Amino acid sequence: MSQMPELEVTTLPADAVEVGRIADAWGIKGWFKVISYSSDAEVLLTAKNWYLLPAEKGAKHFTGTVLLPVKQARTHSDSIVATAAAVGDRNAAETLRGARIFVSRTAFPAADEGEFYWVDLLGLSVVNREGVAMGVVKDLLATGPQTTLVLAYDEGGKERERMIPFVDAYVDKVDLAGKSILVDWQLDY
């Protein structure tokens, strides 16, 4: 029978971002395989504290939020494997299957100049060069070689969507502190 590791019950940080989930046990010494939600899994490899929420489907071996202090995480083939002091064997690792992994936004590595984490763009107001409000970023889509901003705006009491490619040709400036994006785009595009 699988024994749930002793993990500290905690509160999910207000700035927590879901970055992956635990796929399954890996090996016999308590390692587990992780599925990253990003092609760049650096935050999973560097963050020392993961916050876990139970699997959305399947068996749930815990409720609420638990803190998983990660001892080591590394890439292995096309995935990530990790271990924690509280997870001593394969049986304990199996109880974490499906758990959703969150990391505090403060644990993310700094983005390079001109690069942004998607999570930081959500909620920003988008205005064009003429000062016309285009909407608020509600989502981003990876559309092949580029990312597209999905904006929500109100039209006659109904929420509508507008899409703008997130490329230098159309995006003049991203002001994270000012919570805005300046674009070269028109309402009728």
Automatic annotation (TrEMBL):
Q: Which GO terms describe its cellular component?
A: cytoplasm; ribosome
Annotated GO biological process: ribosomal small subunit biogenesis; rRNA processing
Signal sequence: where? none
Cross-referenced InterPro entries: PRC_barrel-like_sf, PRC_RimM, RimM, RimM_N, RimM_N_sf, Transl_B-barrel_sf
The alphabetical list of record keywords is: Chaperone, Cytoplasm, Ribosome biogenesis, rRNA processing
Q: RimM N-terminal domain spans which residues?
A: 19-106
Task: Show where the Ribosome maturation factor RimM PRC barrel domain sits.
Answer: 118-188
Gene Ontology terms for molecular function = ribosome binding
User: SUPFAM superfamilies this protein is in?
Assistant: PRC-barrel domain, Translation proteins
Tell me one Pfam family matched here.
PRC_RimM
Q: Which residues cross the membrane?
A: none
Q: Which HAMAP family match?
A: Ribosome_mat_RimM (MF_00014)
Its function? An accessory protein needed during the final step in the assembly of 30S ribosomal subunit, possibly for assembly of the head region. Essential for efficient processing of 16S rRNA. May be needed both before and after RbfA during the maturation of 16S rRNA. It has affinity for free ribosomal 30S subunits but not for 70S ribosomes.
Assembly information from the UniProt record: Binds ribosomal protein uS19.
User: NCBIfam families, per this entry?
Assistant: 16S_RimM
Give the comment on domains. Answer: The PRC barrel domain binds ribosomal protein uS19.
Please report which protein family the annotation says this sequence is part of: Belongs to the RimM family.
Its protein name is Ribosome maturation factor RimM
Higher taxonomy: Bacteria, Pseudomonadati, Pseudomonadota, Betaproteobacteria, Burkholderiales
